[in-house]
Structures
1.
Amino acid sequence: MTKTPLGTRVTPIDAAPGRLRLLDQRRLPREEAWIDCGSADAAAEAIRSLAVRGAPLIGVAAAWGLAAEARRLGGAGGSFDATWEAAAARLEKARPTAVNLRSGVERMRGVFRSAAGVPAAERVARLEAEAARFEAEDREACAAMGRHGAEWVAARLGGDPKAPLRVLTHCNAGALATAGIGTALGVVRALAAVRPVAVFADETRPFWQGARLTAWELAKDGIDVTILPDVAAASVIASGKVAVAVVGADRIAANGDVANKVGTYGVALACRAHGVPFVVAAPRTTLDPACPSGRDIPIEWRDGAEVLLLDPSGETPLSVAPEGVPALYPAFDVTPAELVDAIVTEAGVSTAPHAEGLARLLALP
Ligand code: MRU
């Protein structure tokens, strides 16, 4: 398997001391527009509105948002500590399912509190350094997941390495969802570095992360991608056209149950029914040992109105339903651990039983 550095032309965050810019993903693929965030509340609003989304990326954006907040507040004393802590508490609640958001906030809180007595400028510098470290760790984790995942898939599937490998993915777990090459799409990029790969991207209604984002970033990097209506995934899997499904995760419970974008569970069921390996790629910041099982994972319910619109993030959202009829929108679902063949992290791969596999990976340095 390749050891060459894996790359992408796609980057959704541009952050440095005194600067936090986020690519507005609501406007992709129409245009590449950036949002300047000068405070924790601005970062929280970008996260809540899905301008920035994807579990690892919202953790990184939150970390930089808290660094920006410290710089904005500028000085020690007075209400500095209380104001920053209150902003951190609001930011942490911007979305409930992705545990990476909490991981990012907790990392920053630790540094903020341990620097309580130091001069303000030094405290700000320490927070900015921590956000940069957290971002770099995510970038490195993506590269490592790519290599581990590609090795696992190659070993499991074997076959002719010159024939196109058909991979199905759901939602967007790519460069647009991380600080690096992506989780699921990091595995795809690592595979594509050594053999031809053809990706089926579930469109992922109603926000269209697959059709708008996965298709955009893979096409930009020259990786073969075809969009599938979500409702076609099961029959395409049944037809034998999919060699492996690889998805990301927003939170993984201690027993290996996986919360990811709604629709993932159906993909996993179809894969198991038709003997197709189902792989989840996620950094260890997505593992939540405090959640014993998927039942304990908080699932975000978004406004049902988003389901009734053809393009909820577009300029002219078109209503597709009769007026007055409501809709339900659980934004995530939980795939039971027994349907997951492999969980790929930066520290290695867990196979069943995942409770033991994940505990082992979490204990590694
Ligand atoms: O609502 P979103 O777009 O934030 O949901 C994102 C997903 O479900 C991704 O699959 C998940 O965060 C993994 S990202 C590497």
2.
Amino acid sequence: MAVDNQKTNHKELLKWIFDMAKMCNPDKIVWIDGSEKQKEQLKKEAIQTGELIELNQEKLPGCVYHRTALNDVARTEHLTFICTDKKEEAGPNNNWMSPEEAYKKASDIFKDSMQGRTMYVIPFSMGPVESEFSKTGIELTDSIYVVLNMLIMAEVGDKVLKFLGNDGRFTQCLHGKAELDINKRLILHFPQDNAIWSVGSGYGGNVLLGKKCLSLRIASYMGRFEGWFAEHMLIIGVEDSSQKTTYIAAAFPSACGKTNLAMLIPPQSLAKKGYKIWTVGDDIAWMRVKEDGSLWAINPETGFFGVLPGTNSKTNYNAMQTIKKNTIYTNVLLKDDKTVWWEDGDGPVPESGTDWTGKPWKPGLKDENGKIINGANPNSRFTAPIKQCPSASPLIDDPEGVPISAIVFGGRRASLAPLVYQSFDWQHGVFTGSIMASEITAAQYGAQGKVRRDPMAMLPFCGYNMAEYFKHWLQTGKNIKNQPKIFHVNWFRTDKQGKFIWPGFSDNLRVLEWIIDRCNEKVGAVETPIGYIPSQADIDLDGLDINSSDIDELLKVNNDEWLGETESIKEFYSQFGDDLPQELNSELEKLVKRLKDS
Ligand code: GTP
Ligand code: SPV
Ligand code: MN
């Protein structure tokens, strides 16, 4: 198979493409140039083959619909591996395979898997092209769906190749659908080779290799050696009435509210005070310390790959505006008029349609066990350009990024974790991030609802031993003169009936206001064994229909429950053995003492 060498003189790149094509054996190779014309052609082709369905172009201009295979609807963490020379480098937090075994196993699946198909070459940049902070990747894929998603999620095409020149560094990203068989699916990362191989899947996080694979797993590995952070964090700017914008980076596990928080609309009482929200990113933050001694962040993505169920004009108006055009809808309900719907979306429940599996659907339809059949998969998603978001920050393209004043960690916990608390200092903040826990959601394959520890929301995404990752956090903190303050939030505490106590969504700004005021030393706090919490009077509850005993409940720190938690933290820490930084053990001991003493 000849590789078109008119495109680039990058010998290493051409040789790699040649080698991969030799293995996968596609009928042809097509370079993605980033043009509208090529994008439209590919879309047409995918509509003809049925890979995509064209949606109602009057109501949803530029939008298409895609269904994945039935067993390919979320990231498969058990099939995701870090392939380093030594197992210890991957740590107890990762599945590990030796590079030799991994390349061999995947080669067997890739072999001739692109026969009768086209291999697309996608040059992409995470972060603005030519920014010192960006990383270049080349993804090879046999999926037009992947190409069209990448065109939204990253800077793609000739401009990236030009920037790469004859010898620029790039991450090798190979993706193939193969048979879309879960038993022949592998998501492999080779941080020491700067390479990713993904085979047997067609679902988002498994196949849009610039996203979780490069921008978190590979990038976290790079950041450790290069002195920066690659994090599973949204970035939001909160502008106040004096036109000062405070930037916050927040890490919540998958499907725990990043996209929603990143583009929230202030509730009336806070809008009146002059607050405005600017969205910088909803999933990934790359952060580094600059000469001014502050921590600066960019969002390396140019699009959102967001959860649809639960998204409506009330919960997330900005998202609903963003996805009106040029959007790829995956695994939602297809209505008879070729528009789309999902559970807890806008408008009345449609009387009929075709569900995400392709079967006729009606409300109330039940399966053989009497369970209601959803129209949309719980992890159905939209892919849309950030620039279409009404709250998109004017700084989304700024290669320097934005300065971060607060870091917020958070999980989905029905009990224990209060609505918000602030850590005592950076080291205690790293401890707070390291003990995060959250209920498993539909964003990953596995037991839903079970609480698991997910430090910094990075458990599935840290490309190396997490004990070393904690050290990197502790160490890098020492280089930050203007350290961001570190907080923890929980929007998901429930009452005895299992209902969320906190209204969430827009009203989360009430909590962010306290956080920002703490950063600016404008408000006090109450000291508890786990950190500082607000007094009820310091959270603006104007216009909220919630009684003060509920707020008490939300802010409660139960020492006995927390002592139980420290046992589980000890157990979690023990898997890291002597690698765990002693600072964290000492924070744990201090927490136990404070809980017993107060
Ligand atoms: P990933 O894209 O998987 O990383 O998820 P995410 O963290 O961006 O989560 P997202 O904002 O998409 O929210 C996931 C689900 O949580 C959606 O169904 C939301 O409606 C719901 N959700 C988000 N914020 C809140 C909140 O403040 N309160 C409650 N109760 N639900 C929320
Ligand atoms: C997540 O699961 O955290 C996501 C979606 O943001 S995916 O791209 O599939 O990882
Ligand atoms: Mn995510």
